[in-house]
Amino acid sequence: MKRKLALIMAMVMVLALAGCGRSQDSSGEVTQSAQESNPSQDVGSQDTGQIQDESESGEEVIPITLRFSWWGGDARHEATLEAIRVYEEANPGVKIEAEYSSYSGYYEKLVTQLSSNSAPDFYQVDQGWVAELSKTGNAFADMSAYGDILDFATFPDTMMTDYCTINGEVMVLPFGYNGTVFLYNKTLLADWCDENGNLQMETWEDFMRIGEELHARDPESYMTTAVTDGYLRYILKPMLEQITEKIDIQDDFTLGFDQEQMTQAFDSFLEIFNRNTSQPYEEALLYDSLQNNPLWLNGKVGGIFLFFSNIDTEIAGLTYDYGVTGMPMFEDAVLSGQECCPSLMVAINKNVDEEHQKAAARFLEWFLNSEEASRILGTVRGVPASEKALDALKQNDMLSDLMAKGIEISNDTLSLKNGAYELNSTVKAVFVEYMEKVIYKVSDPDKASKEMITNLEKVLGELNK
Amino acid sequence: MHKMQEKQRYLMKKRHFKDKYQGYLYISPWLIGFLILTLYPFVVSFMYSFTDYDMFRMDFVGLKNYIDIFTTDNLFLLSLSKTILYTVVSVPLKISMAMLVAVLLNKLARGRAVYYIIFYLPSVLGSSVALAILWKYIFKKDGLLNLLLEAVGITGSNWLGDPKLVLYVMMLLPLWQMGAPMVIFLAALKNVPADLVEAARIDGAGKIKIFFRITFPIISPIVFFNMLMQTIEIIQIFTPAYLITKGGPMKETYLYSLYLYDTAFRDSKIGYASALSWILFTIIIGFTLVFFKLSNKWVFYGDEQ
Amino acid sequence: MRKKINKLLLYVIITILAVIIGYPVMWLFFASFKGNAEIFTSASLLPEQFTLDGYLNGWKSIAAVPFSVFLINSCKMVFPTVILTVMSASVVAYGFSRFEFKGKKLLFTMMISTMMLPNTVIMIPRYILFNDFGWLNSYVPFYVMAAMATNPFFTYLLIQFFRGIPRELDEAAYIDGAGKWRIFIQIILPLSKASLVSAALFQTVWTWNDFFNPLLYINRVTDYPVSLGLRLAIDADSVVNWNSIVAMSCVSLMPIIVLFLLMQKYFVQGIATTGLKS
C-alpha cells in the first residue's frame, strides 16, 4: 500500500515537473529572442510572392517566436496552420505559435489577456470590438509605422478609412469583407424565377407576396428563415436603414432613427411573420446556424440572407440548385441597408516590443497579400479584402460562381458603412430584446420602439464615458 | 500501579497537547492554498465591486454598483427571481430522484453495474457541446417528445421556443443529470448496517417504516450534504442557459449566472459583475445558515455521543 | 412468492427509469453514426444511412489536431489532479472531523463559503496570479489547486462520511498506542473506500468536462484537453462536422465509463459491520 502511494506520488511529481518545465521553456524562448534582437538587416522590401528570407550577406537569422490567435472552424484552422507551416519553412528562425479557439470564449480570453499584458503578438478581432478595444489605448499597435512592410494600397480606401484607421492610426487590417445577399433555392422557387433562373424579386412586397404564395402551396415551406442574429442584422436593420437612410448608431453615440421610423420598421418586420413568409420565430430560434435547421436542410426554405463569404458553407453537402440576388428594398428606398464591411480583422499587440511587431507585420504582409498565401487560405476568412489576394483567387479559379456573383451584387448596391458601435454586443443585445418583444407580441411596435430608444441611449451613454 | 496510571495520564496529556496543533497541520494544505489562491482573489473581487473596473480602467465608485443593482437594474430582479424559482423546483426534484434510484439500485442483486452506468452517464456528459443537440432533438416542435405524445394523441407544444414553458423544460436537465447525488447516496446506503435492517424486518417492520426510522437517520448527514451542495450548485448553474437556450427566448431562461457572465465578459463591467457576485454570495450564505440551523432537528451524526 | 413479485416489480420499475434516462444517451451514440444532415432532420434512433465518417474524420482531426492528442492531454490534466485531490481532501477532512482546535468552526465556515461565490469573477484575479507565477500554459494551476484542496466539495463530502464513522474505533486504536496518522491510514481510510472513490469519480468527471479554466490557462492548442478541443470545431461561419463532434464526444466518454466500471465494486461492497456497536 505504501509502495503504491510512493509510486503514485512520484508519478504525480514527474508530471507536475513536466508541466512546469514546459511553461518555462516557452517564456524562456521569448526572453532569449528579446535579448538577442537587434535591428537586423530588415528584409523590409519583402513584397508579395517573394517569400525567400534572403538573410543578406550571410547574416545570422535571429530566432523569434510569434503568438497568433484566431477563432474559426475546422477549415479555417487547417488552412491557417498550413499557411503558417509554409511561412516557417521559408523563413527559418521565425516560429509562430498558433493559439486558436472557437468563437465562444474568445473575446473573454482576449480581454483578460490584454488587461494582464499576456496577449498574443497579433490576433484576430471582430469588427464590432474595434471601437471598444482601441479606446483602451492598450490593445492595438499603430501599423502605419510599418508602412514599409505592409502594403495598405491593396485594401479599398473607404475600407481603410471607415474601419481600420482611427485618429490617423491604422489599428487593424481586414482579413476579409462581406456583404449581405439573398441566397435562394432555385428548385423550390422555380415558379417565381424567369427562364434564366433569376428570382423576380425587387421589393419587400415582392418578397412577402412570394412568401405567402409559397406557403399557401406547401404549408411546410417558408420563403426564409434565420437565426436570431440573422433576423436582426439581415432583415430588421436593413429595413430600418432603408427608411432612415442613416446608420442606426452614429459615431457620436446618438441614434440615427426616431421612434416613428423604428415603429415603421417593426411593422414591416412583423409582416414577414404575419404573412407566413418566414418560419415562425419560436421554431427558428432553436437553431444556432442554418446547418442545424431541418427546414433548410430539407430544401423547404426559399432562401436565406447571409454574407456572401458564407455561401459555400451554408450549401455544403446540399444538392439543390441555388442562385444569388440582392436585398429586397422598399419602393422608395435608395439604400439597400445591407451590411457591407469587413467582419474579421487582425491587429498587432501594442505591448510587445518592436522586433515582434515588425516580424508580425512581415508575416501579415505575406498572409494578406501574397498569392501563395491566398491559394492556401482560399475563402476561409471570407472573401479577401486585399485586391492582390482576391485577384489571386480569381485567377486560380478558387472563387465559386455563387460567391463571385454575390460579390458583384453587393458591390453594385449602395450601402452605408457600419457604425463603429453597431455591432457592439451590449448594443446588439438591446436590439434583440425588443425585437423579440415585438415578435412575441409582448409589446406593440410603438411602445417597444420608445423603450428601446430609452435603453439604447442609456447604453450608449455608458459607452461614451 | 499508581505510577503506571500517572505515566499513562502524562502520556495522554502530551498527546492531547500535540493534538491541539496537529489539527492545524492536517488542514494546512487547504489553509495555505486558501490564503493565496482563494482569499486573495476573493478580497480583490470584493474591492472590484466598489469600482467601475472594465478591464482597463478602474475608478472608485463606492456603493454605486450596489445601489444601481437594487434600484434601476431590471435584469437583476428578473434573473434572480428566475434562478430562485429554478432552484426551488429543481433541487428537491433532483435529490428525490437521486434518492429513489439509489434506494432501488441498492436492492438489486444482479446487473448493478449496468444500471449504475446508465443512470450516471447523463451527468458525465456534463456541459458537453453534444448536450445542445440532444436537448433540441428531444424538445423541438417536431422532436422526440412530441412524436411520442402524438402517438398517444396529445399535441405537444414548442417546448423550447415557448417563453411560458421553456424554464420548466430546462428544469429537467438537472433532474436528468442526477448521477452525482445518486452515487453519493449509494455510498451512504452502503454504510447502513445490513444486520440492523434485517433485524427490523424480522421484527415485522414494513419497508417504508424501515426507511424512515433506520435508513434515513443514518444517512441524514449525506442527505443534508446533498441538499446543501445541490442548492449551491444549481443556484449558480450555467449550462442550461449558456449552452442550450442562450437565456432565451425573451430572457425566460436568463439565469443569474448568465447575467453575471454577460456583465463580466460581454460588457466588460467587472466592477458591476463583482457586486452581482457578492450579492449572490450573501443570498447563498443566508439560506446556508438556515439549512444548518434547521439541520439540528433531523440530521444525526454517528460520531456524536 | 410475494418476494418474487416484488423483485420483478423492482426490476420493471428500475428498467423503465433506466430507459427514460438512458434513451437520450443512446440516441447520441447512434447519432455518431449518422451523416451531418441526418442528425438534424431525422427523428429515428437508428441511422438511415450508417456511416463511420464521424469517427474516422473526428479521430483523424478535430480543428486540425488529431483527437488522440486531446485525449492524452485530458488524461495528463485529469489524473494527477484527481489523485492529488483525493489525497489532500482526505487529509484536510480528517483534520476537520477528528481534531479540535481553535477557530475550527470559523475556518470550516470559511472553507464552505468559498463555494458560494460564483467562479466568474474569481477567475480574473486567479489568472493574474497564475500569470505572475509563470504557471500559465500548463496544467500546473490544476495540480496546485488540487493539492491544496481548493474545492471544498470533496473535503466536505469526506468530512460528512468520516463523521459517520464511530469514534469508538478511533479510541480503541488510540489506546492500543496508534497515533493520529496511523488511525487515519488504518482505520478511517479503509472504512471510507466508497466515499473516496466517489470523490475521485466526481473530480475525474468535472475536471474532464471543465471548459472555462483550461480556456483561460492554456494557450497552445496542442495542450488543449478534450473539453476545449471539441468546442474548437464549432463556428458559425464554417461547416461544422457535427457527426465528428458527436462521435468524439462519445469516444471521450469511454475513459470515464471504464473508470466507473473499475471503481463500481467499491459501491457494491458493504462494510464489515462486525464489531460495530451503534
List the helices and strands and how they pair.
The complex is a heterotrimer of chains A (465), B (305) and C (278).
Chain A: H1 2-36, E1 64-71, H2 74-90, E2 94-101, H3 106-115, E3 122-126, H4 130-135, H5 157-164, E4 165-166, E5 169-170, E6 172-174, E7 176-185, H6 204-217, E8 222-224, H7 228-244, H8 259-274, H9 281-284, H10 294-297, E9 301-307, H11 311-315, E10 322-325, E11 340-342, E12 344-348, H12 354-369, H13 371-377, E13 383-384, H14 387-395, H15 401-412, H16 425-439, H17 445-463
Parallel strand pairs in A: 1-2, 1-3, 8-9
Antiparallel strand pairs in A: 3-12, 4-5, 6-12, 7-9, 7-10, 7-11, 7-13
Helix pairs in contact in A: 7-8, 8-17, 12-13, 13-14, 16-17
Chain B: H1 2-48, H2 64-71, H3 74-107, H4 112-125, H5 130-139, H6 144-151, H7 166-170, H8 172-176, H9 179-190, H10 194-202, H11 207-235, H12 239-245, H13 256-266, H14 270-298
Helix pairs in contact in B: 1-14, 3-9, 3-11, 4-9, 9-11, 10-11, 11-14, 13-14
Chain C: H1 2-31, H2 36-41, H3 53-60, H4 67-98, H5 104-113, H6 119-133, H7 140-147, H8 152-163, H9 167-175, H10 180-191, H11 193-209, H12 212-217, H13 226-232, H14 242-263, H15 265-268
Helix pairs in contact in C: 3-14, 4-7, 4-8, 4-11, 4-13, 8-11, 9-10, 11-14
Q: Your description of this structure?
A:
In chain A, helix 8 (259-274) crosses helix 17 and helix 13 (371-377) packs across helix 14. Chain A is globular. Chain A has 465 residues and is α+β, with helices and mostly antiparallel strands. In chain A, strands 7, 8, 9, 10, 11 and 13 form a six-stranded mixed sheet that branches. A five-stranded mixed sheet of chain A has the order 2-1-3-12-6, with helices on both faces. A two-stranded antiparallel ribbon of chain A has the order 4-5. Chain A folds into two domains: 44-54 and 62-177 and 342-395, D-Maltodextrin-Binding Protein, domain 2 (3-Layer(aba) Sandwich), CATH 3.40.190.10; 178-341 and 408-463, 3-Layer(aba) Sandwich (D-Maltodextrin-Binding Protein, domain 2), CATH 3.40.190. Chain A is 46% helix and 13% strand. Chain B has 305 residues and is mainly alpha-helical. Chain B has 14 helices and no strands. Chain B has helices at 2-48, 64-71, 74-107, 112-125, 130-139, 144-151, 166-170, 172-176, 179-190, 194-202, 207-235, 239-245, 256-266, 270-298. The longest helix of chain B is centred in the N-terminal third of the chain and has 47 residues, at 2-48. By secondary structure, chain C is mostly helical. Chain C has a domain at 79-232: MetI-like (MetI-like fold), CATH 1.10.3720.10. Chain C is 71% helix and 0% strand. Chain C is built from 15 helices and no strands. Chain C has helices spanning 2-31, 36-41, 53-60, 67-98, 104-113, 119-133, 140-147, 152-163, 167-175, 180-191, 193-209, 212-217, 226-232, 242-263, 265-268. In chain C, helix 4 packs parallel to helix 7 (140-147) and helix 4 crosses helix 8. The longest helix of chain C is centred in the N-terminal third of the chain and has 32 residues, at 67-98. Mean pLDDT of chain C is 86; it is low at 270-278.
